[in-house]
Amino acid sequence: MRTCPHPFASLVLLITLSAAAQPPTSPLGPVSPTTGLVLRDDAVRALIQESSGDRIHDGVQRLALIARDTQSGYTEAAAWTKTAAEAAGLQDVRLEPMKDGPQWRATRGELWVAGAHRYRVTSYADLPMSLAAGSGAFEGADVELVDVGTGTQEAEYAGKDLKGKVALTRGHPVAALRNAVVKRGAVGVVSSYSTPPWNLSHRMDGDFPDQVGWGVVPRSLSTPGVPAPFLFMISDRQGRELLAQLRAGPVKVDVSIATQTDTGHLSIVSGVIPGTRAGEELVLTAHLDHYKPGADDNASGSATLLELVRTYTTLIRRGVLPPPVRTLRVLWLPEFEGTREWFSLHGEEPVRRVAQFNFDMLGASLTRAHSRFQVSYTPDWNGSFVNAVSESTLAFMNRFNSVVYPPRKDFRIGSVTGSQDPMDAHMERYGRGSDHQLFNDHGIPGVAFSTWPDDGYHTSGDRPENVDPTQLHRAAFAGLASITVAAWAEGAGALELARLVALHGVRRVAEDEFRARRDLTSVPVAELPETYRLTRAAVRIAYQREREALRSCLSLGAPAAPVQAMAKALESAEAQALGRLEVDGKARGASLREASPSAAERQARTFVPRRVKGQELASFDELARKAAPEQQPRVAAVQAAITAAETALRERGEGELRFYQLPDALASYADGKRSVADIRDAAYAEYGHVFPVDALVELFGLLEQGGVMTRIR
């Protein structure tokens, strides 16, 4: 007997097939009342549930096996990354060769204590970073070991013959290399130094007695025709053992090192997830180079990029996401050097690079490494929508992951093999120290994702077991959520993004106004007129930054009229904030009138510098080293002002990376519109420190003389 089909079955099937045939919709939507993001809740869940910190950790363990600070090791890592990126679905993956240059490599490096009870102290084969890159070849038996303390003071060398001997130091090895080797004829140095100066606020040498620090023999210490000195890095415990033996009597060492320097190059690994709109890109970067193991720094960022690619290509293939509007350009490269090279190769391409996202040191266990997860803002002079996107992402992550057992399991970001650490992520004011700074210096808004500090930073303690898969998953989601908004925003989605920018801008300018009013309230009365002028400038700059962030949504396709209305509202709010500041100033009972400008001030107001195209990454330190003798007083004046600023910021509790390469950060303000006096005010808004205007005139004058700047007027 033939059965008649259900009368609605064909209709249900037709509706199902039609729905399945519909292209996926944009992941963007209005600000979610649940998450506070401009991503649809289902898109947020998809990004969380598809991405995996466990997979990233597998990549970290693989890369940590490779010494990526040599050409052979880096080449191996780049080849593996290229293969993994292709497997993850990245397109047009290629190895772009960088310029040829000297490439150091070692085949043997052993340090032994000689004598009846001969034993090996360290070995390149066991721990490659124990033999510093740039070390020269050496063979020697029964070479006397001489303690030089920190290696920095002349008194530590008094009465000691170093010629043909090995210096033992607990200080920074470069000081001992200069004083013991270059000046006194030692053949090499053994150092137990382990803490970079910018990390001294988080750990001291000896806090982790078995960590070995990362050292390099600078090329500048090598003399043509003379073998380069060698440098072995050992742990604090090993250093104290050798020192104890020296106190008991002479110690001699056997050294066997085979190294060579050849001409060769590293390569940039590059690929894309193509977008639908031609000529627009987002750039995603992670530096691939580093010593072995270098797990958090930066196998974690490199492996995370692979997982971001895999997550996106999987969701696009399944129809959960449409292809992005803007192409995602993914780069694995040597830190700084590779980014400089990439700009030299691609900086003039007719491509609008909307934003850059940098992934460096992402996975440190928050509990084991005493770290926390953070994302940097762009500098105030480079206002962008990416700040509000990153800020809203971290707020969402904290809200649903600040406890071990969150009630919304679908918004929990964890891993199968990772920790249950509660989340406490933070946005940080602009700091430098990784590749995002170079993109900002080129005018491309760049933000950095990182875990900082890290007890194993730049030591042998940076191992995979101190990298947490849960933290890796969270870092991956932070990147995915932020990139998704930037890559898929257009039309209505870009307008919703502008509304998010306006919302978060209100909070940021409120904080800026608070700082300005606090500064105005706390200064002595005699300083009130100048502080009033600076704090007014800081408030104006804060509102200007947020208006620029709003306008950055226009280039994504947001309609002009509502964005302009939001910017107009900020102008009204700015006038009210300046009024409150004036009330505070007058309440102090002193005149707010400025004194007559000094000669240096008048000069600063008429000096409008602009960075010379192609010199975006020129370094003041390099220029200062090459300055003629007659320019040294000017250089010294700038350096004294920078040192004073660094000391003040350090005493105020600012992180060291906040003012890393500070002269170059100040130089980035030169846009051909701001005078040096304007730059002084803008730097006060960014750093809360008053830079002497005469020193800034000298800084920009030296940069102009060095061909880095041109003077508009």
Give the arrangement of secondary structure elements.
Layout: H1 9-21, H2 41-50, H3 53-63, H4 71-88, E1 91-97, E2 101-113, E3 119-123, E4 138-147, E5 166-169, H5 173-182, E6 188-191, E7 230-233, H6 236-248, E8 252-264, E9 267-273, E10 280-287, H7 295-317, E11 327-333, H8 337-346, E12 352-359, E13 373-376, H9 386-401, E14 426-428, H10 436-441, E15 446-451, H11 469-488, H12 491-522, H13 528-551, H14 560-587, H15 599-606, E16 609-611, H16 620-625, H17 632-651, H18 662-667, H19 676-687, H20 693-705, E17 709-711
Parallel strand pairs: 4-5, 5-6, 6-7, 10-11, 10-12, 12-15, 13-14
Antiparallel strand pairs: 1-9, 2-3, 2-8, 4-8, 9-11, 13-15, 16-17
Helix pairs in contact: 3-7, 3-11, 4-7, 7-11, 9-11, 9-12, 12-13, 12-14, 13-14, 13-19, 15-20, 17-20
Describe it for me?
With about 725 residues, this protein is an alpha/beta fold. The chain has 20 helices and 17 strands. The strands form 3 sheets. The protein has an 8-stranded mixed sheet, sandwiched between helices. Strands 3-2-8-4-5-6-7 form a 7-stranded mixed sheet. Strand 13, helix 9 and strand 14 form a beta-alpha-beta unit. Helix 9 (about 385-400) packs antiparallel against helix 11, helix 9 crosses helix 12 and helix 17 crosses helix 20 (about 695-705). The radius of gyration is 28 Å and the shape is globular. It starts with 8 loop residues before the first helix and ends with a strand.
